[in-house]
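This part of the workshop introduces the protein records we will be handling. As an example, a complete record with its sequence and its C-alpha cells follows.
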Amino acid sequence: MRIAVYAPLNPPDGPTPSGDRLIGRMLIRALEDAGHEVCLASRFRTFDRNGDRERQARISRLGARLASRYLRRLERSPPDLWLTYHLYHKAPDPIGPLVSCALSIPYVVVEASLTPSAAAGPWAAGHAEVVAALARADLVVGINPRDRPEVARHLRPGATYAEMPIFIDGAAYREAATQREAHRQQLRTALGARPEQAVLLAVGMMRSRDKLDSYRLLAAALERMPRRDWHLAIAGDGPLQAEAHEAFARLAERTTFLGRVDASGLPSLYAGADLLVWPAIKEALGMCFLESQAAGTPVVGARREGVASLVCHGQTGLLPNYGDPSDFAKAVGELIGDRQTLTAMREHAFRNAWEHHDIKTAGPRFAALLASIGSKP
C-alpha cells in the first residue's frame, strides 16, 4: 500500500529530540519494513499551546487549503490509506479527514485522546475537530489504555478500536546489555562513584513545566533517602537547565550532570546504570522506560496507566504512587538495598522490552493491523 502519514503535533522528521517524534519514526519504519510505501503528507503543525481561538480558526482554514493542494498534487497517484499520528484537542487534524473522504480511502488514527472538559473551554474548536475526525475514522489504534473509554464512544458503527504497545529499535540497547559490566565500570569511573554506591540514572529534557516538575520531585524524593550509598547521573539539557540543576543543589555531592547525550550514547549509559529513576509527572508514557528496559536496566517510575503499560510493577521495576516523593524514595531504597531482586528484574526488563516493545516483534503486528483495514472493500 501507499500510506500517507501526518503528525499534526510534531513532524516525525523534526530536529528536536522527543518521545513523540521517536514513536512517529518507529511507526513509519515498521510500515516500510513491511513493504509499504510511506510518504509524509504534510509538516503542518497545528499545536496551540495557549488556547487561542483565532489561531485555531486560522489553523482550520489553512488545513482545508492544504488538503485541497494535497489532493491536486496526488491526483494521478493517490495513497491507499491515510494515517494520522497523535490527535488531541491542542493538535487536531484539519487535513486527513478531508483527504480520506475525497479519495474514499481508509482514515486511521494512532494515539487519539479526548478531554471532555476541553469541549467548552478555550480549545473547544480543537476538541470539536478531534470528535469529527474520530467519527470519520475506520481504525483508531490506542497506545495508552486510559484513552480508550472516551475515544471509543465517539467512533462510528463499524469502526475499530485496537490497542497496540509502542515500540523502539532495541538492537543497540540489546548489544549494550551484553557488555553491561564494561559499561558499568566506565560509567562509575566517569562519575567517580564508589564501589558500594548504586548508580541511579535520570534521562529527560530540561524543559516545560512537566519535565521540570519531574526533576524537582526526583530531587525531593532522593533527599528523603535514609541510605546514602547511591550516586545519580542525569542526562539532558534544555532551556530550564539552570532550574533543573538548582533542584539538586542539596544533593550536589552525589549528583553528576552529563548534559545532552546523543542517541548513540544512550544504550551504553542505560546499560551501565543500576536503576533508572523518573517520576513521569504528567507524562502519558515515557520512552526512557522502554529504552532502559531494552538495555536490561530496571526502573522506578510512577503508577499511571500509560507508564504501567510499559513497566511490569514488581517484575521489571517499581511504580510508586504518582506524585508522592516519599513513596518514590521508598521504592528506590527498596531496590538498591536488594541486589538479588535487582538482578532478577534485569532479565525480566530485557525480556519485556524485546517480546512486547521491539520493532522486530511489535512492528509487524502494527503493519498487519493497517493492512487488514486497507484490504477491506
Notes: DSSP finds 15 helices and twelve strands in the chain. The mean pLDDT is 93. The radius of gyration is 22 Å.
